[in-house]
Amino acid sequence: MPHSPLSFKLITFFYLLLTLSGASLATVGHHRRPRFSPHNYRDALAKSILFFQGQRSGKLPPSQKMAWRKDSGLFDGSTMNVDLVGGYYDAGDNVKFGFPMAFSTTMLSWSVVEFGGVMRDELNNAKEAIRWATDYLLKATALPDTVFVQVGDANKDHVCWERPEDMDTPRTVLKIDRNSPGSEVAAETAAALASASLVFRRSDPSYSKLLIKRAIRVFEFGDKYRGSYSNGLKDFVCPFYCSFSGYQDELLWGAAWLHRATKNGSYLNYIQENGQILGGGELDNTFGWDNKHVGARILLSKAFLIQNVKSLRDYKGHSDNFICSLVPGAPFSSARYTPGGLLYKMGDSNMQYVTSTSFLLLTYAKYLTSAHTTAHCAGRTITPNALRAIAQKQIDYLLGENPLKMSYMVGYGGRYPRRIHHRGSSLPSIAEHPAKIDCSSGFSAMDSDSPNPNVLVGAVVGGPDQNDGFPDERSDYEQSEPSTYINAPLVGSLAYFAHSFGQL
User: Fold this and answer.
1) Which EC class does it fall in (predicted)?
2) Number of CB atoms found within 10 A of residue 83's CB
3) C-alpha to C-alpha distance for 150 and 160, rounded to whole angstroms
4) What distance, in Å, lies between the first and last C-alpha atoms of the chain?
5) Is 157 helix (H, G, I), strand (E, B) or coil?
6) CATH of the domain at 188
7) Taking 50 as the threshold, does the pLDDT of residue 29 lie above it?
8) What domain range includes position 224?
9) Could you tell me the pLDDT band of residue 277, with boundaries at 50, 70 and 90?
10) Active-site residue 122, yes or no?
């Protein structure tokens, strides 16, 4: 029988009370590991990475484990005489959107940069997931002052329900260039390439150098020709992935990653000169595929905390303000939580903010621990362990510690979403149904109450509503659709907890 909302609030209150007072929770290399492990984080980690195989576009390799998926999009780019085969479908559709794909790549890479050292057997799988993206992003940025930012017509794709292996909707190719700029996509792509260069620095130095060289060039293009891709490409990218936060946050984010990857002082100068202009409002506390302000602040706080770059001192304060907004009962706390304790930002794909915020909490806790310091909220001290406790509460909720006792990761636990909003998962596989399923025929499966025939292992869906409700209906894309940018930051968090609880 599920706990009542009141009992969940009490549990959350006492849990945070203990951690805010300094009670111990495990941290890599700094504290004792707890004896009790509430979840199999290692299993969840493996599945969170495997999910990306289900989102692959292009020619699938012999090592493909998600066997119900087959080759797709093999002629992508041909209409523009370029090779754009590969990459990832962003969610449950068959379009390759460059903006969220680049962000997912950055977050996968950041996961490995911070926590790859404890991933063990899963490290190579994570690297493979990153490389599938960066190989594509290298193709998309092969021409100077040009980034190919989308393959597929989303408006026409969204009136069909068909497998990616069958898709016959237009594979329209969209690009940004000098005449039609898109600074947010260019800078995010630069961030993805720069962060990935750190992932491959030791294991594949030549690939790493190629990535950083391309990142530098793409960032220069995005910075020199400023403008939002939502203007020039509005009819194609809106309302799907419009840039509502503007491009300033991506320029700061991209510069921060280039500074970290290159150690080149020119990027530090760029940040110092442009930080206030690009930094946005301090109360802007949403981090996701569109808004990078908080991520940039946390990333830049490391340079101050650990490398003692005094000119970046303000980013420690900005990061503390973000933390203060999340801690229930702390001064300036503004975050909303469901009765069951889940961070709640918005109804559409809320779980993306849960996973991205949890990752930032763990990463900032790592930086604070390394610097032997804490966060401060109007005179109140918030310890790194308190941040880890909040993050663990969120991850545990996602994995099943919630009023419905449901895991929101497909294939994890005994009860999880069975009717996810995902074309390939909901339609019979090529092996089961070799004949083509055309555009409109697939809607019989979309409208069915039957569970999806193909299990998209590791997929995390949009999640419950503000009252912890989840109908598990395929038509409810806001709650039932998975995406790469939900999973990408989750990889780092699961690696941390798997190690902390002695599972890795």
Assistant:
1) hydrolase
2) 14
3) 18
4) 32
5) helix
6) 1.50.10.10
7) no
8) 5-500
9) confident
10) no
Q: Catalytic one among 114, 165, 223, 472?
A: 472
Q: Distance between CA atoms of 448 and 474, rounded to whole angstroms?
A: 8
| Residues of the chain by 3-state class (helix, strand, coil), percent to 5 | 50, 5, 45
Name the pLDDT band for 27 (thresholds 50, 70, 90).
Answer: very low
Do residues 186 and 176 touch, judged by C-beta distance below 8 A?
A: yes
Examine the residue annotation and report whether 421 is marked as an active-site residue of this protein. yes
315 and 2 in contact (C-beta within 8 Å)? no
Helix (H, G, I), strand (E, B) or coil at 149: strand
Give the residue carrying structure tokens 């193709």. 139
Quote the CA–CA distance of 193 and 134 in Å, as a whole number. 7
pLDDT band at residue 283 using 50, 70 and 90 as cut-offs? low
**Catalytic hit among 259, 293, 421, 499:** 421
The owner of tokens 């973000």 is 322
Domain count, the chain: 1
- Is 422 an annotated catalytic residue? no
Close Cβ partners of 39 (under 8 Å, ≥ 6 residues apart): 395, 396, 399, 400, 401, 497
Flag whether pLDDT at 282 surpasses 70.
no
Q: DSSP 3-state assignment of 55?
A: coil
Residue 158 buriedness (CB in 10 A; 0-12 / 13-18 / 19+): middle
Instruction: Check pLDDT > 50 for residue 200.
Output: yes
Amino acid identity, residue 307?
A: Q
The residue whose two tokens read 């946005």 is 280
List alpha helices for 429-483, DSSP H.
443-446, 477-480
Per-residue pLDDT band at 279 (split at 50, 70, 90): low
Least confident of 101-105, 204-208, 441-445: 441-445
Query: Is 206 exposed, middle or buried (CB count within 10 Å of its CB: 0-12, 13-18, 19+)?
Result: exposed
Mean pLDDT (whole number) for 319-340: 90
Considering 114, 290, 320, 481, which one is annotated as catalytic?
481
Single-letter amino acid code for the residue at 62: P
Identify the three-state secondary structure at position 453.
Answer: coil
